[in-house]
Structures are given as C-alpha cells and as structure tokens.
Amino acid sequence: MLQLGTVEIAHPFVQAALSGYSDPPMRAIARRHGAAYTLNEVVLDKLVITRGKGQKRVLRPVEPDDHPVGGQLMGANPDDFGPAARLLADAGYDVIDINFGCPVRKVLGRCRGGFLLSQPEAALEIVARVMDAVGADRPVTVKMRRGLDDSAESERNFFAILNGAFALGVCAITVHGRTVEQRYVGPSRWAFLKRVKAHAGDRVILGSGDLFSAPACLDMMAETGVDGVTIARGAIGNPWIFRDCLALAAGEPLPEPPSIVEQGATIAAHFAESVRCHGADRAGALMRKFGIKYSELHPCARAVRDAFIAMRTTDDFQGLIDAWYNPAGDYPPVTRRTSHGDLIAAGATL
C-alpha cells in the first residue's frame, strides 16, 4: 500500500500526469488494467482560475469511479497557485500535485515547471501557498527532476526544495532521475534516486524515469528503495503495464503480452470513453495519438501506426479495428516491451 497523507492507495504503481494524454478516458482504461492511483494531465494555474471554456473543461467534477486521483498544477506566479489548488480540490481531486519538473522549452521560457528548480525561494513560496489553500483537507505532493543541470549549484537547489517542501507539509515527492537540461535524452540516474531516498528516510519518495516495463518498475524499487513509481511514457498505449506490475509484485510470472483480441477490445473501450467524455466530433482526432502508441504492441506496428495517423472519423476507427484487430486475422506473434522500451517476441525471456 502507498500512503499519501490521508489517501490510501492499494499499491505503489502510479500513472503519472501526462500532458496531453492522462485525461479521464486514459485514466479509466488504466484503472481497468490495475492502476489504483492516477494523475490528471498537468494544467496551468491561470487556466484554472480564469473564467472561460478552458476553466470549465479543467474543473469538470471528478467522476465517482475516478478516485483517488491527483490534479497537477504548473505555473510561475505564487499568487495564482493557492486559488487554483482550491478550485481543483473543490472539483473533487483527492491530491494536489505541484509540477517542478516539466522540461519543455516553452514552459521553461515562461519560468514554469523545471525552471523553478533554479529558484528555491520561489518554488517553496508556491508550495507554501498551496499548503495554505488546501493543506488542511488535501494531501499535497511535488514532482521534481534531479536538477536543472549537472552543476553543484543545481544539486544544492534540488535538496533545498526537497527539504523545504517536506518541512512545509508535503506528504510525498516524485523525483525523475534526469535533469531538466537532459529532457528525455540519456538514462535516468537511479543511483541519484537511491541517494534521495536514503536522505529522505521515512518520508515518501516516488521514482520516475525509464519505466517502460513491469520488470523496470520492480527493479527501480528494489535498487533505489523508493516507496513507489510513477509510470509516464511507459503507460501510454500500454495500460497492461499495471497488470504486469501487480503480477510481479505478487511473486507471479510476468503475464503473456496482450493478444490481438485483448488489444482491440481495450482500444475500442478507450475510444468509447473518449466519445463519452469529449464527444464524437473530437474523439477521432484525440484517439490518433493514443492509437500510435497502442500500435507499438501490434506485430504489424508500422502499418497499424499509419492507419491510426490516417484516421479521422468513427467509421475510420471501426474500419481500422476490423482490419487490424480481427480475431480471425492472420498476424505474426504479438510483442512486449523490455525494460528499455524495446520490443521482443512473445514468450522470449526477459
């Protein structure tokens, strides 16, 4: 079990906040495959507090079967974080998460996300404002990278924010083992996560970075001692990763990768959730990016990817399912991701 303040989570395998991806449909599918705690895609504090269509979309009440769920905030002005956190809490989010890790250049240029790792005083002022606004009735967590870059100053800033956030009452901190400067290039430094967990002691640390398979998730916990893992890119188009994590954690063999029929049923369910949530007019366009990721598990990945890219309408989607996820289809063996995100044939030894 993973404990985030007053929120009890059944297991320590978390679906991370994924910008542009972890909307209600993705979260619903992840839960059906074993995810016990998910985070909404990161939202700007200004979007939350500014009246308009964007605010209405972000503050749509959390549905009864979407708990526990975290709402992640990103911004630059401490004055905006408290009101935004309160509105997310009132919309039903069980945990409020603060993003100090986004490495996107546009975000950094606006002094948001990972940029704040270079500004400990501003970062901790943001944490204090969120704690003041919701700390009495919602757990508050923080997402960080291991620093802006590899300099000694950057590491000092990291630990200043980590220590200060815990002192202010944050109940858990997620640490991605890459720097902001790295973005997604090069390996995530699990040795650094081990140092952070040793430093934090009994305080909850979640690890992130290079988690593309269930074995990688269990390996990170074993090698670093972190209390749980947040699975980000490794969960896009692969909700089965949560099922696999639970099996390995229970001492069971790694399940066989999802069959063509299983993949097709899950993709169809995801599309149906997208239609229900976003409407039929938007679902096709939104499903393309998910389909591209789902296609990586198909033995004819390139052709299926191209079909998803070409998809526009509900009819296009149904035709794609009929063509590529047909139970009577003659396809090569299915594949699964290795710990590094590569693909290997079903039945191969990891």
Structural overview:
There is one protein chain. By secondary structure, the protein is of the alpha/beta class. It folds into 2 domains: 248 residues, Alpha-Beta Barrel (TIM Barrel); 65 residues. Helix content is 45%, strand content 15%. The protein has 14 helices and 13 strands. Strands 3, 4, 5, 6, 7, 8, 9, 10 and 11 form a 9-stranded parallel beta sheet that branches. Strands 1-2 form a two-stranded antiparallel ribbon. Helix 8 links the parallel strand 9 and strand 10. The longest helix is centred in the C-terminal third of the chain and has 19 residues. The relative contact order is 0.11. The C terminus is likely disordered.
Question: Helices and strands in order, then pairings?
Answer:
Layout: E1 2-4, E2 7-9, E3 13-15, H1 24-32, E4 38-39, E5 43-44, H2 45-49, H3 53-58, E6 69-74, H4 78-90, E7 95-100, H5 105-109, H6 120-134, E8 140-145, H7 152-168, E9 172-176, H8 190-200, E10 204-208, H9 214-224, E11 228-231, H10 240-249, H11 260-278, H12 280-294, H13 301-310, H14 314-324, E12 335-337, E13 343-345
Parallel strand pairs: 3-11, 4-6, 5-6, 6-7, 7-8, 8-9, 9-10, 10-11
Antiparallel strand pairs: 1-2, 12-13
Helix pairs in contact: 1-11, 4-6, 6-7, 9-10, 11-12, 12-13, 13-14
